[in-house]
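Structure (tokenized):
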């Protein structure tokens, strides 16, 4: 079964170092029976996209909890045995699931990460996510602004190159060739 695992860039660095996502239970998102019921007209590809977006929203919550993490949502798509997945749907998130075992890096099919252009909106959304979860309409609008950015797709073997961004400051729009210009300020 395909699951979507939310994380952050520091979380990704840890996963790459360990060679697995863990320890279990792992919060995940998937095409659950509750999600199929909520989107009766969606095909499998559309439902997987909805599950990935739910994982991206959870990545915002992880960013809120880690103010030092670069302001980019990270979602890993992985294929795990059905027997390791249980549904934990709750009223507002029908795609919620849990994975009962570590997910080896070889089971990760792809990574999905915000582009640098999304960082300002992601930063604002990470700050607003708790208020949005509490029902604040203005905060929800801020979160929606981040969710308007598509996550970039990375092959599993490309994820190691994202890890390198943790070694130094994350730069603003003056970033060129993967490095900060001397005059550019780090984004927090």
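Design, position by position:
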């Amino acid at each position: 079964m395909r699951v979507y695992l939310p994380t952050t860039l520091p979380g990704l660095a840890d996963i790459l170092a360990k060679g697995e996502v863990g320890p279990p239970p792992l919060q995940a998102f998937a095409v659950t029976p509750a999600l199929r019921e909520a989107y009766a007209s969606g095909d499998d590809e559309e439902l997987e996209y909805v599950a990935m977006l739910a994982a991206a929203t959870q990545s915002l919550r992880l960013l809120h909890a880690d103010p030092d993490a670069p302001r980019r949502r990270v979602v890993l798509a992985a294929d795990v045995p059905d027997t390791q997945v249980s549904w934990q749907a709750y009223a507002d998130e029908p795609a919620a699931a849990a994975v009962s075992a570590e997910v080896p890096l070889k089971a990760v099919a792809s990574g999905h990460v915000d582009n640098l252009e999304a960082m300002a909106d992601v930063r604002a959304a990470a700050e607003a996510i708790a208020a949005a979860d509490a029902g604040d309409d203005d905060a929800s609008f801020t979160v929606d602004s981040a969710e308007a950015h598509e996550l970039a797709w990375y092959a599993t073997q490309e994820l190691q190159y994202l890890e390198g961004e943790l070694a130094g400051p994350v730069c603003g729009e003056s970033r060129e060739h993967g490095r900060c210009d001397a005059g550019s300020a780090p984004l927090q």
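Reviewer-requested clarification: Residues 44-65 form the longest helix (22 residues). DSSP finds six helices and nine strands in the chain.
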